[in-house]
Amino acid sequence: MNRRVMLKKGVGAIVGIGGGLVLTDRGTLMAQGVSASLPDLVAVQNGEPDVMFDKAIEAIGGMSSVVKKDQVVVVKPNIAWDKPPETGANTNPVLVKRIVEHCFKAGARKVYVLDHTCHDCRKTYESSGIMAAAQAAQATVVFANGEEDYVPVTIPKAAVLKTTKVHKLIAECDVLIDVPVLKNHGGAGVTVAMKNLMGVVWDREYYHKAGLHECIADFCHYRRPDLNVVDAYRIMLRNGPYQGQPADIAVRKSLLLSRDIVAADAAGAKLFGSDPAQTRHIQLANDSGIGTMNLEKLNIKKITI
């Protein structure tokens, strides 16, 4: 059930997310060139991953509002770990498959699925279930663990990550869709959409040496995803990013969707049970104008299936 109460003057709306209430700022929507009638963050709960995505993408105007005819799309899930779907270490394969299907339905010419994995890519792509799911939807699955496939880029607005090597498909694609799984991370605290983009750069160790949170935020000055879809079906509450045991996994059956990567991360942090301001890269990205962590300023639609 969708709960929504309009304010008297029509300048905002109060909607629920995670049990709280937020106030819409319609001026923000108009400034971003998005129709004031559309939410800029959607929270869906109590459904299967594919059904929740169907509802969420419909709420922002359908995938055709993101992907245009003949465009090349990169879908970037978390495929980093040699773990099966029930562990919550990687993005749910059912969700990845449905996103790819929507891209082709919107007219995409090519859809790639890739990640620079931590464990052996051939094992992670298979054990995660993502390779089979993506290929079933006619996506081109790319192993992204070879340095020859990365190109140097500069990030002028960055505070720390001023140069890096990014996968050539990220540099060349028309549309980037970021599909992280929400979970605990030993270094970052919580990992959502911004952290997931570490899987498109070559030298991730530099992040840890130079400043993990600073580099995570800095990369978004190079490229912000056109859409962020947060898989919160299973959440690894402890021992992340991949060592969680069954007792560490909470089945929340939730999904978040936003064009704003900082808003997606802030909402993800709240759903995880933490204060977004306590995750340094979220605060840094907010302060540098990458997006907003102030959910009370956004038009948020909550859908319960």
Descriptive report:
There is one protein chain. With 305 residues, the chain is an alpha/beta fold. It has one domain (49-294): LarA, N-terminal domain (Rossmann fold, 3-Layer(aba) Sandwich), CATH 3.40.50.11440. Helix content is 30%, strand content 27%. Strands 4, 5, 6, 7, 10, 11, 12, 13, 14 and 15 form a ten-stranded mixed beta sheet that branches. A hairpin with a 6-residue loop joins strand 1 and strand 2. Helix 3 (93-105) runs parallel beside helix 5 (130-136) and helix 9 (212-222) runs parallel beside helix 11. The longest helix is centred in the first third of the chain and has 13 residues, at 93-105. The radius of gyration is 18 Å and the shape is globular. The termini are close together. Mean pLDDT is 89; it is low at 1-34.
Number of beta strands: 15
Overall tally of domains: 1
Poorly predicted runs: 1-34
**Termini distance?**
6 Å
Mean pLDDT: 89
* Name of the CATH architecture: 3-Layer(aba) Sandwich
State which percent range the strand residues make up.
25-35%
Q: Treating each run of at least 4 consecutive H or I residues as one helix, how many helices? A: 11
Would you list the SSEs in sequence order as H and E?
A: EEEHEHEHEHHEEEHEEEHHHEEHHE
The CATH topology corresponds to Rossmann fold
Briefly, what CATH class? Answer: Alpha Beta
Query: What gross morphology would you assign?
Result: globular
- Helix coverage percent: 25-40%
Radius of gyration: 18 Å
The CATH fourth-level homologous superfamily: LarA, N-terminal domain
Largest β sheet strand count, sense and barrel closure: 10 strands, mixed
Structural class: alpha/beta
